[in-house]
Structure formats: structure tokens, C-alpha cells
Specification:
- The complex is a heterodimer of chains A (126) and B (132).
- Chain A is mainly α.
- Chain A has one domain: 3 helical TM bundles of succinate and fumarate reductases.
- Chain A contains 5 helices and no strands.
- The radius of gyration of chain A is 19 Å and the shape is elongated.
- Chain B is 73% helix and 0% strand.
- In chain B, helix 1 runs antiparallel to helix 2.
- Chain B has a single domain, classed as Up-down Bundle (3 helical TM bundles of succinate and fumarate reductases), CATH 1.20.1300.10.
- By secondary structure, chain B is an all-alpha fold.
- The chains are: A mainly alpha (126), B mainly alpha (132).
Chain lengths: 126, 132
């Protein structure tokens, strides 16, 4: 189906000028999260009943550290995109909607940095 | 708001409740739950990195009644949102969009999510006796 003008295709933007990027990144992160969630669920099952030392050793292994970091960052990015859409849909008051959207973004960045910082600290034996 | 007497589009209360709309709502609700639940995941990683004591108190909370309740909801949310997310990705390719297909895939997604959550929970040592 070719409903879009050549110019609009060249620009790669939707009718709202920035909706397409949001939509596309939401799908990309979703696609990436499919294998990451599978890995995470299997890992959590294997970690159940393990003590602190065993969990730390598990987290220190480079590929666990990288995958857990990737899962966390991709998940938070995807969550933030989803929350933005939900706030846009359900919060009418402009100031409240903007506050919620900014708050969610800041929270996602804070959580991502905190989690990744902890993983790096563990990986380098801090 | 100047809404005057223009007809409004039919709202939730007007439609007969059908499975696909419930599942659509559930996708958003589990998405919100997972967003909030990400705090728990980060807290778990931070507690492990911080100290054995912090990890022990985190494990203590997660092993308690409230912790287990939250964790089970977290597990179901993650699995349901992922399985239904795959359904969404299939829709994005233009497939399975006929009404009967949407009903059928909805039932499959719901059944699969419940079964997978229970399997994951039991494999992780939950339910019998409690204290995962």
C-alpha cells in the first residue's frame, strides 16, 4: 500500500511528525526483549534458593552481567515508551501529563544508571 | 470543556465485554505493573552489590507473604506481557487480524500465560510450603 508521498517517505516521519519514531523503537525494544525475557526467567528459576555469595558469583560472570544490564536498560526504555503513551491517553491536564511524562523518564534513567552501576561494581569486584 | 450535545463515541460501558478488549486492557495494566516492578529488580541487583545483609533483607521481604504476592503478580505480568507482546508483533506484520483469529489467539495467549507462570513458579520452588 502506497499512501505516503515520496517526501514523507524520505523524511521518515508520520502525520504527527514524531509518532513513528516512538512506535518503531517500541517494536524494536519489544523484539529485543523477547529473548532477554526468556533468558531472564530461566536465570531467575536457576537462581532461586541460592545464597548471597552464589548470586554475586553469578552476577559477576561477564555474560550474565551484560545480559542482565541489557535486559534492564531495554526493559526500562520500553517501559518508559509505554508509560508515555498511557499518560498521553489518560491524563487530560497538560501540566500534569507533562509532569508525569518527565517524571517517568527521569525515574527510568535513574533506575537504569543505578542498576548498571551496581552490575559494573560487581563485575569489577567492588 | 465545551462538549455541547454532539454524540459521543460508544464507551466501555456500552460495549458487551469481550475477551480481546479485556486482554488489551490487561496488556496495559501488566505493562504498568512491570514498570513499577522494575524498581524491585533494580533493588534486588543493588542489594546483591551492596552487602550480604542488604541481600538478606531483600530476600526476607521477597520470601514473606506480601513479597510472594508481589513476586507472583510480577511473574504473571512479565510472562503475560511478553506472550501477548509477541501476539502484538505478529499483528504488526499484518497477520492474524481476522476477528475469529483475534479471539482464538487471545484464548491461547491467556492459557499459555497462566500455564507458563505456574510452571515457572513451581520450578523456582514456590507454592508448596511457601518461601521461594
Amino acid at each position: 500500500m502506497k499512501y505516503r508521498s515520496p517526501l514523507s517517505v524520505a523524511r521518515g516521519l508520520g502525520s504527527s511528525n514524531d509518532g513513528l519514531g516512538h512506535w518503531w523503537v517500541q517494536r524494536l525494544t519489544a523484539l529485543g526483549l523477547v529473548p532477554l525475557v526468556l533468558w531472564f526467567v530461566v536465570s531467575i528459576i536457576s537462581l532461586s534458593g541460592q545464597n548471597h555469595q552464589q548470586v554475586v558469583v553469578w552476577m559477576q560472570s561477564p555474560h550474565h552481567s551484560i545480559l542482565l544490564g541489557l535486559f534492564l536498560v531495554t526493559g526500562l526504555y520500553h517501559a518508559n515508551l509505554g508509560l508515555q503513551a498511557i499518560f498521553e491517553d489518560y491524563i487530560q491536564a497538560r501540566w500534569l501529563q507533562l509532569s508525569a511524562r518527565i517524571g517517568a523518564s527521569f525515574a527510568a534513567i535513574l533506575l537504569g544508571f543505578t542498576g548498571v552501576f551496581s552490575l559494573i561494581g560487581l563485575a569489577f569486584g567492588g | 470543556m465545551p462538549m455541547n450535545e454532539r454524540p459521543l463515541s460508544p464507551h466501555l460501558q456500552i460495549y458487551k465485554l469481550e475477551l480481546p478488549m479485556v486482554l488489551s486492557g490487561l496488556h496495559r495494566i501488566t505493562g504498568i505493573a512491570l514498570s513499577v516492578g522494575s524498581i524491585l529488580l533494580v533493588a534486588w541487583v543493588v542489594s546483591a552489590a551492596h552487602s550480604a545483609e542488604a541481600f538478606a533483607s531483600m530476600s526476607g521481604f521477597l520470601g514473606g507473604f506480601i513479597g510472594q504476592f508481589v513476586l507472583f503478580g510480577w511473574a504473571f505480568s512479565l510472562i503475560y506481557h511478553s506472550v501477548n507482546g509477541v501476539r502484538h508483533l505478529i499483528w504488526d506484520t499484518g497477520r492474524l487480524l481476522e476477528i475469529d483469529e483475534i479471539h482464538r489467539s487471545g484464548k491461547i495467549v491467556l492459557a499459555l500465560s497462566v500455564v507458563l507462570t505456574l510452571i515457572a513458579w513451581l520450578l523456582a520452588g514456590g507454592f508448596p510450603g511457601g518461601g521461594a
